[in-house]
Amino acid sequence: MVRALILAALVASAAAFSSFTPRNLPCHTASRQPTSTLSMKIYDWKRRTADESAIHEEEFTLGNLRPAPGARRRKNRKGRGIAAGQGATCGFGMRGQKSRSGRPTRPGFEGGQQPLYRRLPKFAGQPTGPGHEKEAFNLIKLDDINGAAEGSTVTFDSLLESGATTKAKHDIHKVVVGREDFAAKGVTVQAHAFTKGARDAIEGAGGKCELLSKTTNAVLEA
Questions:
Q1: Which of 160, 158, 193 minimizes the C-alpha distance to 176?
Q2: Measured between alpha carbons, how far is residue 193 from residues 154, 160, 207, 214 in Å?
Q3: How far apart (Å, rounded) are the C-alpha atoms in residues 29 and 38?
């Protein structure tokens, strides 16, 4: 009777131990089958869904130009509620001088310390500020005047009509030396400024330089 009770206790303990056996043993994994069809897709936010397989085979034209994947971001809308990401204080906080409306300090202000524009050394002979802006000229090379007829008057408008030059970015024109030798004879060149080399080349070929006013385009001196 005692032997039967011991045998029954051993069988019960063996069954209880088998119920706590881990299921990832080799004997269990061989017989188990996957029950889930869940799969994960690796998503690269920098590339988006762009197909760049044929990027080196495509010829770029004005019709198929497009920005790089991830280069153009959506506009950040501030002050449109907390759901937009920059609502309420719009990222400026609740207190302090920098959270107030309007520009709290002037450009270049660094809280009282020596600002950068005063720490850097100044270039001698290069004044800055009002009244010292650099004048921007549209350059006319002597190469463009080589095709002018002898004894004619050359201006920027006449060169533009003949196709010797292209349209200008600035309203005032300056004649400079070109790469080729000056070949036009006895021409009268009208411009707002001349370099010394260009003036010597024109006058050396029997021509004349006439300086124009920068505001009225009238002839100032010959």
A1: 193
A2: 14, 18, 16, 9
A3: 19
Rg (alpha carbons) of the chain, rounded to whole number = 41
Cα separation of 143 and 166, whole Å? 13
Q: Cβ atoms within 10 A of the Cβ of 145, count?
A: 25
Pick from 175, 168, 206: nearest CA to 192: 175
**Is the model's pTM score more than 0.70?**
no
Query: Do 206 and 186 touch, CB atoms closer than 8 A?
Result: yes
Is the Cβ–Cβ distance between 176 and 140 less than 8 Å? yes
Convert the pLDDT of each residue in 81-93 to its tens digit. Answer: 888 888 888 889 9
Q: Are 192 and 157 in contact (CB under 8 A)?
A: no
